[in-house]
Amino acid sequence: MPEDLAAAEVSFQGSGGLVLHGSVISPAGARARSGRAGVVLVHGAGTGTKRDKLLGEAVAFARQGLSVLIYDKRSEGYSLFERSYSQLADDALGAVRTLRRQPGIDPAKVGIWGLSEGGWVAPLAASRSKDISFVILVGANALQPLRQQTWAVAAGLRKAGVRGSFVDRTEPTMYRAIADAGMFPEPYYDPEPVIASVRQPVLGIWGVHDLLTPPRETPPIFAKALEKGGNRQYTFRFFADADHAAHRTPDGGVTRLPELAPGYAELVGSWVGEATSGRAPVAQVTGPAPVQAEDTVAVPAAEWWEAAGVQGAALVLFLVAFGGYPVVALIRRVRRRGGVSSAVGRAGQGEAAPVKGAWLVSAGGLTVVVGAFVYLFYSIMTGGKLASPGPLVAGRPLIWLALQALAIATVVGTVLTCVRWRRSAPVGERVRVGLLVAGGVVFVPWALYWGLLLP
């Protein structure tokens, strides 16, 4: 800890009585005056997040004369597939109560700061407690989480140079399926009514190059919701050359530097002083215009035919239809080598000539189905982190282009197989090839839906 600051360890009860641990960082020595304002920092999304992730902000704010509480985020009840903003808000309220009791702090001057996901949590906590005297939001989002996430991953992919159906169609389709399967927590949480119920002064901060929260769309929604609730004590500030967390970025939001945007910490210190003395600015918006290349797009709940269960059934059909064809061929070959072929097999079942196109449908369809989901999962997991999805050709990932080519080949193979099957398929092949054709027929609308047959 720097010599000009002091740290005190604290513990408190969060939601459900869970004990959480944190640190209060305050000015030391002569600067440790009594009657200080304090602020609780609420993490963004992430599992296993420790307090030191926000240590840079805590040190910067403490040097502005504030006492700052940072704490380890809960892991119980919080994971990639499970979380509750209400529960996280109650955790934050436990931290607020603890900070208000610390020596030297004026309990009437304690507020809350939320980053990213914390931008949903902090307003919820503030709406529940009059003990919170102000709210600071950084990279906050006024949209539904699923809408924000699909935009963020798409923005990351576009930043990497990706264009076409993969980013416009396939990526949001995947997220809708994930949400329908219950694997995306709080997908349709609506923050606007909560924002409208916040009565405390609000400081909203956005980096101009935010690639995780749409920086052009979000602030007007915040302002409209606050004013709908009669709250005009808000200050919005945009910082140039800053990213989602208002840290400096040298390359338009791709790289985050350790340093905060110049003037960010000073703004927090001065604004808190004004807000806690009853002089919070009214409807003030300053700073350069944010950069947002694409608008967000609504992500409605899946229709019945898009539901995760239906998609899962389609995958089972593909695995059976496409995978069953070579499996049966392998079994027949093993049986022939073992000399246990049946009389029917000797008569022609095991020796039947392959139907033209059948192996293309089997191999192509199976490769597309498995390969598409493996690649899509990888791209979604890394897209929001601005990782390149591999080599690009005309803005299309090379791997995705290969899968699209195989998808077209599978459709062509299905047509050829269907024609040959109906004309002269051997009796022993009718069921096996019929199942393969059924899989190929279902594959066409499925591949269109997932963007595999779209440019």
Automatic annotation (TrEMBL):
Highest taxon of source: Bacteria
Key word Transport present: no
Pfam family, one: Hydrolase_4
Every Serine aminopeptidase S33 domain range: 36-148
GO biological process: proteolysis
Keywords: Hydrolase, Membrane, Transmembrane, Transmembrane helix
Bilayer-spanning residue ranges: 312-331, 358-378, 398-419, 431-452
InterPro entries: AB_hydrolase_Est10 (IPR053145), AB_hydrolase_fold (IPR029058), Hydrolase_4 (IPR022742), Pept_S9_AS (IPR002471)
GO MF: carboxylic ester hydrolase activity; serine-type endopeptidase activity
Keyword Transmembrane attributed: yes
Protein name: Dienelactone hydrolase
Naturally occurring in which organism (per UniProt): Nonomuraea jabiensis
